[in-house]
Amino acid sequence: MADKSNDPVALWQKMIGEMEKGFNAFANQAMAAPQFSRMVNQAGGVSAGAQKQLGELMEKYLVTMNMPSRAQMVGMAERLQSIEAQLFEIKTMLLEMNGISGMTKDSLATAPRPPRTKRPPAPVPAPVPVPVREEQK
After folding, report:
1. Could you tell me which residue, 103 or 63, shows the higher pLDDT?
2. How far apart are CA 50 and CA 100, in angstroms?
3. 10 Å Cβ neighbour count for 69?
4. Span 33-54, mean pLDDT?
5. Do residues 41 and 47 touch, judged by C-beta distance below 8 A?
6. Residue 77 class from Cβ within 10 Å (0-12 exposed, 13-18 middle, 19+ buried)?
7. Which residue has the higher pLDDT, 101 or 90?
8. pTM reported for the whole predicted model
9. pLDDT at 79 over 90
Protein backbone atom coordinates (compact mmCIF):
# COMPACT_ATOMS: atom_id res chain seq x y z
CA MET A 1 0.00 0.00 0.00
CA ALA A 2 1.04 3.57 -0.58
CA ASP A 3 2.58 5.56 2.23
CA LYS A 4 0.19 8.20 3.67
CA SER A 5 2.80 10.93 3.30
CA ASN A 6 3.04 10.28 -0.47
CA ASP A 7 -0.68 9.59 -1.12
CA PRO A 8 -2.02 12.38 -3.44
CA VAL A 9 -5.64 11.95 -2.28
CA ALA A 10 -4.63 12.31 1.38
CA LEU A 11 -2.56 15.41 0.53
CA TRP A 12 -5.50 16.89 -1.38
CA GLN A 13 -7.91 16.24 1.51
CA LYS A 14 -5.47 17.80 3.98
CA MET A 15 -5.02 20.89 1.77
CA ILE A 16 -8.81 21.32 1.34
CA GLY A 17 -9.31 20.92 5.10
CA GLU A 18 -6.72 23.62 5.86
CA MET A 19 -8.27 25.98 3.28
CA GLU A 20 -11.70 25.41 4.78
CA LYS A 21 -10.43 26.21 8.27
CA GLY A 22 -8.80 29.41 6.95
CA PHE A 23 -11.98 30.54 5.17
CA ASN A 24 -14.10 29.80 8.24
CA ALA A 25 -11.76 31.80 10.49
CA PHE A 26 -11.77 34.74 8.06
CA ALA A 27 -15.58 34.65 7.70
CA ASN A 28 -16.10 34.45 11.48
CA GLN A 29 -13.78 37.39 12.02
CA ALA A 30 -15.50 39.45 9.28
CA MET A 31 -19.00 38.63 10.54
CA ALA A 32 -18.09 39.58 14.11
CA ALA A 33 -17.37 43.16 13.03
CA PRO A 34 -20.29 45.63 13.36
CA GLN A 35 -19.46 47.05 9.92
CA PHE A 36 -20.33 43.71 8.32
CA SER A 37 -23.82 43.56 9.83
CA ARG A 38 -24.39 47.22 8.91
CA MET A 39 -23.29 46.52 5.32
CA VAL A 40 -25.54 43.44 5.03
CA ASN A 41 -28.47 45.44 6.44
CA GLN A 42 -27.89 48.24 3.90
CA ALA A 43 -27.62 45.76 1.05
CA GLY A 44 -30.91 44.18 2.10
CA GLY A 45 -32.58 47.59 2.28
CA VAL A 46 -31.32 48.57 -1.15
CA SER A 47 -32.47 45.25 -2.58
CA ALA A 48 -35.94 45.61 -1.05
CA GLY A 49 -36.24 49.18 -2.34
CA ALA A 50 -35.16 48.19 -5.82
CA GLN A 51 -37.63 45.29 -5.84
CA LYS A 52 -40.48 47.58 -4.74
CA GLN A 53 -39.59 50.14 -7.38
CA LEU A 54 -39.41 47.47 -10.08
CA GLY A 55 -42.84 46.20 -9.02
CA GLU A 56 -44.32 49.69 -9.27
CA LEU A 57 -42.74 50.23 -12.69
CA MET A 58 -44.05 46.88 -13.91
CA GLU A 59 -47.56 47.71 -12.68
CA LYS A 60 -47.46 51.10 -14.48
CA TYR A 61 -46.26 49.35 -17.64
CA LEU A 62 -49.06 46.79 -17.47
CA VAL A 63 -51.65 49.55 -16.92
CA THR A 64 -50.25 51.37 -19.95
CA MET A 65 -50.49 48.19 -22.01
CA ASN A 66 -54.07 47.68 -20.69
CA MET A 67 -53.11 44.36 -19.09
CA PRO A 68 -53.93 43.14 -15.57
CA SER A 69 -51.24 43.18 -12.90
CA ARG A 70 -50.33 40.18 -10.76
CA ALA A 71 -52.46 41.48 -7.89
CA GLN A 72 -55.44 41.89 -10.20
CA MET A 73 -54.99 38.38 -11.60
CA VAL A 74 -54.83 36.94 -8.08
CA GLY A 75 -58.03 38.84 -7.22
CA MET A 76 -59.78 37.50 -10.31
CA ALA A 77 -58.66 33.96 -9.53
CA GLU A 78 -60.00 34.24 -5.98
CA ARG A 79 -63.34 35.59 -7.22
CA LEU A 80 -63.55 32.82 -9.82
CA GLN A 81 -62.94 30.17 -7.16
CA SER A 82 -65.67 31.73 -5.03
CA ILE A 83 -68.11 31.70 -7.95
CA GLU A 84 -67.26 28.07 -8.73
CA ALA A 85 -67.86 27.11 -5.10
CA GLN A 86 -71.25 28.86 -5.14
CA LEU A 87 -72.21 27.13 -8.39
CA PHE A 88 -71.26 23.78 -6.89
CA GLU A 89 -73.48 24.49 -3.87
CA ILE A 90 -76.37 25.49 -6.15
CA LYS A 91 -75.91 22.36 -8.24
CA THR A 92 -75.86 20.20 -5.12
CA MET A 93 -79.05 21.84 -3.83
CA LEU A 94 -80.79 21.35 -7.19
CA LEU A 95 -79.83 17.69 -7.29
CA GLU A 96 -81.13 17.23 -3.74
CA MET A 97 -84.40 18.97 -4.66
CA ASN A 98 -84.76 16.79 -7.76
CA GLY A 99 -84.09 13.71 -5.64
CA ILE A 100 -86.84 14.69 -3.22
CA SER A 101 -89.38 15.37 -5.98
CA GLY A 102 -88.43 12.18 -7.83
CA MET A 103 -87.43 13.95 -11.00
CA THR A 104 -84.49 12.77 -13.04
CA LYS A 105 -82.80 14.08 -16.14
CA ASP A 106 -84.94 11.76 -18.29
CA SER A 107 -88.18 12.80 -16.63
CA LEU A 108 -87.32 16.45 -17.18
CA ALA A 109 -87.08 15.83 -20.93
CA THR A 110 -90.45 14.03 -21.08
CA ALA A 111 -92.30 16.29 -18.64
CA PRO A 112 -95.66 17.48 -19.97
CA ARG A 113 -95.68 21.00 -21.26
CA PRO A 114 -98.59 23.41 -21.14
CA PRO A 115 -100.63 23.72 -24.33
CA ARG A 116 -99.57 26.39 -26.75
CA THR A 117 -102.41 28.87 -26.98
CA LYS A 118 -100.75 31.75 -28.74
CA ARG A 119 -101.06 31.49 -32.51
CA PRO A 120 -98.63 33.07 -34.96
CA PRO A 121 -99.99 36.17 -36.69
CA ALA A 122 -101.84 35.69 -39.97
CA PRO A 123 -99.75 36.38 -43.05
CA VAL A 124 -100.30 39.85 -44.49
CA PRO A 125 -101.12 39.80 -48.22
CA ALA A 126 -98.65 41.48 -50.50
CA PRO A 127 -99.73 44.93 -51.69
CA VAL A 128 -101.22 45.06 -55.17
CA PRO A 129 -99.31 47.39 -57.50
CA VAL A 130 -101.36 50.33 -58.72
CA PRO A 131 -101.00 51.07 -62.45
CA VAL A 132 -99.46 54.44 -63.15
CA ARG A 133 -101.04 56.46 -65.95
CA GLU A 134 -98.84 58.21 -68.38
CA GLU A 135 -99.67 61.80 -69.06
CA GLN A 136 -100.57 62.72 -72.58
CA LYS A 137 -99.03 65.72 -74.32
Report:
1. 63
2. 62
3. 15
4. 89
5. no
6. exposed
7. 90
8. 0.39
9. yes
DSSP 3: -
| CA–CA separation, 92 and 108 (whole Å) | 17
Q: How far is CA 110 from the centre of its chain?
A: 43
By the 10 Å C-beta count (0-12 exposed, 13-18 middle, 19+ buried), 98 is classed as middle
120's enclosing H/E stretch is none
Element (H, E) at 134: none
Task: Please say if the pLDDT value at position 136 is more than 60.
Answer: no
What are the extents of the domains in the chain? Answer: 68-108
Could you give the angle at the alpha carbon of 85 between the alpha carbons of 82 and 88, nearest 5°?
150
Query: Does residue 3 carry a pLDDT above 80?
Result: no
Residue 72 to residue 76: CA distance in whole angstroms = 6
